[in-house]
């Protein structure tokens, strides 16, 4: 009797191990998440530099924004198109804003009063 129970347990463990292996295989078969593309921007009272940046579609983006102005409004960035809420930029070090992969198109960003404006031009992959 005990012997049978042990066998059943052993079988259960074997099945468990097999399904875990199957899961691991499915996991590694998934395409790797692409590395984010870093976009470096500077904002001063003259505006964003560069004013327009081309990035590839379908890869996460990492905005690194250096603030060179004490102006409170210009020192704040927001974008409805990119779903960036009003974000006060650091004057000490670049502010990093992570964005998910975007579809091809143009995405504007600006300070809250739109005194300075810039845009991301997202190009279809392979173009
Ligand atoms: Cu402004």
Kindly describe this structure.
With 127 residues, this protein is an alpha/beta fold. The protein folds into two domains: 30 residues; 87 residues, Cupredoxins -  blue copper proteins (Immunoglobulin-like). It is 22% helix and 39% strand. The chain is built from one helix and nine strands; from the N terminus they run αβββββββββ. The strands form three sheets. It has a four-stranded mixed sheet, with no helix packed on it. It has a three-stranded mixed sheet with strand order 3-9-8, with no helix packed on it. The protein has a two-stranded antiparallel sheet with strand order 5-6. The mean pLDDT is 86.
- Low-pLDDT parts are none
Name every ligand kind in the structure.
Answer: copper (II) ion
- The domain count comes to 2
CATH homology superfamily of the largest domain: Cupredoxins -  blue copper proteins
The major β-sheet equals: 4 strands, mixed
CATH topology (level 3) name of the largest domain: Immunoglobulin-like
Number of helices: 1
Features of this protein?
1 helix; Immunoglobulin-like; alpha/beta; binds copper (II) ion; about 130 residues; single chain; 4-stranded mixed sheet; 3-stranded mixed sheet; 2 domains
Topology diagram in text:
Elements: H1 2-29, E1 37-44, E2 47-49, E3 52-56, E4 61-67, E5 76-79, E6 84-88, E7 95-99, E8 105-110, E9 117-123
Parallel strand pairs: 1-4, 3-9
Antiparallel strand pairs: 1-2, 4-7, 5-6, 8-9
Bound molecules: copper (II) ion.
Copper (II) ion (CU) is lined by residues 73-74, 111-113, 115.
């Amino acid at each position: 009797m005990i012997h049978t129970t042990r066998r059943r347990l052993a079988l259960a463990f074997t099945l468990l191990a097999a399904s875990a292996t199957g899961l691991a295989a499915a996991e590694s078969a998934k395409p790797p998440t692409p590395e984010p593309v870093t976009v470096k921007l500077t904002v001063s009272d003259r505006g964003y530099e560069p004013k327009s940046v081309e990035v590839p579609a379908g890869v996460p983006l990492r905005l690194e924004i250096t603030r060179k102005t004490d102006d409170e409004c210009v020192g704040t960035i927001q974008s409805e198109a990119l779903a960036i809420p009003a974000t006060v930029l650091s004057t000490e070090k670049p502010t990093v804003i992570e964005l998910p992969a975007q579809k091809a198109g143009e995405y504007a960003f600006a300070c809250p009063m739109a005194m300075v404006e810039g845009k991301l031009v997202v190009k279809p992959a392979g173009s």
